[in-house]
Amino acid sequence: MKTDYKELLKRAHSQLPPQVLEYKRFDIPRVQSFKIGMRTYISNFKEIAEVLSRDPLHLLKYMSKEMATK
């Protein structure tokens, strides 16, 4: 069942609404951080995870991997 890319693109385009009735900007809260020694703490980490609809542990794992830290 191989489907052509252009066919998939036409199908996706046909499922889009003709007009966008609502324009809404996605805003992530500004990071509130502070340093103690060599460590940086994010005081509103849970709030940021909630806005992104992610589990805080999952977000922490992603950030740790991206920044190559523990």
Short description:
This protein has 70 residues and is of the alpha+beta class. Helices cover 41% and strands 11% of the residues. The protein has a domain of 39 residues.
Strand content: 5-15%
> Which regions contain 5 or more consecutive residues with pLDDT less than 50?
none
Oligomerization state: single chain
Category from helices, strands and their pairing: alpha+beta
The radius of gyration is 20 Å
Helix count? 3
The helix/strand series, from N terminus to C terminus, equals HEEHH
Shape type: elongated
* Residues in helix, %: 40-55%
**Biggest sheet statistics:** 2 strands, antiparallel
Strand order of the largest sheet: 1-2
Count of extended strands:
2
Average pLDDT level: 88
N-end to C-end Cα span = 44 Å
Describe this structure in words.
By secondary structure, the chain is of the alpha+beta class. The chain has a domain at 32-70. The protein is built from 3 helices and 2 strands; from the N terminus they run αββαα. It has helices at residues 5-14, 45-51, 56-67, and strands at residues 33-36, 39-42. The chain is elongated. The relative contact order is 0.09.
